[in-house]
Design brief:
This protein is an alpha/beta fold and 604 residues long. The protein folds into 2 domains: 287 residues, Rossmann fold, CATH 3.40.50; 267 residues, Class I glutamine amidotransferase (GATase) domain (Rossmann fold). The radius of gyration is 25 Å and the shape is globular. The strands form 5 sheets. Strands 13-12-14-15-23-22-21-18-19 form a 9-stranded mixed beta sheet, sandwiched between helices. The relative contact order is 0.11. The C terminus is likely disordered. The two termini are 30 Å apart. The longest helix is centred in the N-terminal third of the chain and has 17 residues. Keywords: ATP-binding, Glutamine amidotransferase, Ligase, Nucleotide-binding, Pyrimidine biosynthesis. This is CTP synthase. InterPro entries: Class_I_gatase-like, CTP_synthase, CTP_synthase_N, GATASE, GATase1_CTP_Synthase, P-loop_NTPase. One of its GO terms (molecular function) is CTP synthase activity.
Length: 604
Amino acid sequence: MKYVLVTGGVVSGLGKGVTASSIGLLLKACGLRVTAIKIDPYLNTDAGTMSPFEHGEVFVLDDGGEVDLDLGNYERFMDIKLTRDNNITTGKIYQSVINRERRGDYLGKTVQVVPHITDAIQDWIERVAHIPVDGKTGPADVCVIELGGTIGDIESMPFIQALGQFSYRVGAGNFCLVHVSLVPVLNVVGEQKTKPTQHSVRALRGQGLTPNILACRTTMVLDENAKGKLSQFCLIPAENIITLYDVPNIWNVPLLLRDQKAHEAMFKVLNLHGVAQEPNLEEWTCRAESSDLLHEPVRIALVGKYTCLSDSYLSVLKALLHASVDCKKKLVVDWIPASNLESATAKENPDAYKAALKLLKGADGVLVPGGFGDRGVQGKIIAARYARENRIPFLGICLGMQIAVIEFARSVLGVQDANSTEFDPHTKSPYIIFMPEGSKTQMGGTMRLGSRRTYFQTKECKSSKLYGCKSFIDERHRHRYEVNPELVARLENAGLSFTGKDETGQRMEIVELPNHPYFIGAQFHPEFKSRPGKPSPLFLGFIGAACGQLDAVLQSSSIVDNGLSKGVGSEISAVNKAYKNITATKTAAYRTEYIYGSCNGLHF
């Protein structure tokens, strides 16, 4: 087993996760089997109880693990399925050591950070690295490990000590350290400054780790003078210093690594010459280039609670992007804080209300994502009602599906007090209820989590057709509340159709309005299984409806497995060829544009 460790220096938010994902993709393109581990030094056992404002979205795995969003990047780039143990936290490590101490496993020894915590970290890494994640038998060839945080953080020190020991444990030729660091440009001087990176490497060496490859985050290509300084003062060969400059699309990052021969540098350190081949990234390159050249927009209004931080909905954004590229459209997301659509905002801040309403009315499609709590709920209901009454394509995810049910009950059935017990525990019309098996005292890990099976009730509905007319599908869940099964008949008699249910037939999974161009809600989170080139079927249908291509999507006989459609938009090479005649000037102009309307989510 070979190990590639990715660390970060100077500041946080440099893109270590994207860099680690890109390294994994590059190695996989070289014919190697790859797995990944993310280390988060916080004390939480997992990401499940943290607000999206803390670390972005909580990504959910097949086994129900609630993990850091970087594991979503790993899965999307490397097309693998990870487990909850692929996300290591300080909380998990200390909990396991304390449990062993209580059992008496340490035979009366004084339990200390070194060696007990550091040994536990190393054992965990080695154990998880050998778990196959690509559907094949046997362990992977390479494990990419990302250490969260920044070199110098107090909470990271036990992990750095453990990883230093681990590098000797696995031996020379089996461990490669890639250090991602910032090379800023001061506007006053206009010169790339290498001193912060020099200090970061010095701090890393002082803690027992020696970087083999330096990945420099810059706004532009690293000049030879700066590279020479870094090579001299950091004691790293110039050919092992990689520039990761800003690009408009993170799909370009693996191409930056390939073009600068990062794979060859890793092969040399890991003794993989003769084992691995030259990277085959032709399909990935075509997808990245064609994505950069798309210019005909499809506008999606995302009405949510955490819209001030795009990472809160990272997987939703990626799923929208995958579907948009498949439909050959440029994605533009209009972020609408749900509370800005409410009557209280209309009175207190009319300008914000008018701006939100304008964005909603200008959208080609409306998406209400998942969330918790009652803030902004009325605004989400207003958005769902607007989409339903004006026949605008609508996709509701988790809470978004529940919102659609509540809105239908209020507007169509005339049940004005229809509500969820999450928002009003004493409501007399509980159309959404707390699941019986849920816990009201323990928050962490007590929701209905992970991959669950949904059975289609008919193959004539849009959702079934989007999934290739399968009898059932497996999608990932994360919820505590559900549609009240006692009121389903009343809703269906009024025209709402629950086209997907669980194995008992009592838990509603998919809801549709048959007489609407596209109005679908899903209790599960389809975004978690969307991949570049294999968009989520519900997102593909949503974007297809928003840009007038739904019939082509539905009629395509090539929709298989997770929504890969050769007939609609996956002929990336053909798209790429079609754009060859676009001038270089026009290409450069497109590359400078944002794909996401009001955020810079794709800028690296």
